[in-house]
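ok so I'm stuck.
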Amino acid sequence: MSTSPAGRGLLDEREIEEIERAWPNGLTSRQIVDVFETRGIRFSEATLRKYVQLGLLPRSVRVGRKGKHRGSCGLYPAHVIRRVNVVKGMMAADRTIEEIQRSFARFKDEIETVENDLRDLIAGFEREAKAPAVNPEGRRELEREITEAKRAAGELVRRISSLERRISAQAAESPAGGAAAAGSDLY
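replied:
not stuck anymore, here's the structure
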């Protein structure tokens, strides 16, 4: 008999999708902790930092705040909520730290490489389109195509990231193996 994610003290798919829609530009560490704490799920900023150190979550990106002398804050992509939820599910299934890390490391590096390579490639296109040798009419057409390429690249990365999340979620549901350090050691 299968227990629903919410029944195991986790977020369900509907909640995760709502959160991802509500914060498309990312969340601060405090917002991430609040998402779980307000639902009665134990999670702290220290645990978040530990997950980042273990490579289970991406590092935050510094984003400037609007307004003079407002500084910046660290934002995590919205999919971090889904990732934390999967990790907590794997821990509840008594997965070891090593098993959890392996399940995320399978495709994480490749996806980041694809994303960075696409970003670099498009940045190169943008530089070339701004070159003095490109006539203004040709430049406008190139800029439109580059904008479309950015959109398509973003969609590709979202789709492969979604696939990775689905595969990781499947791994979280499969029976645990091994007897190394327990997932609860992540607290």
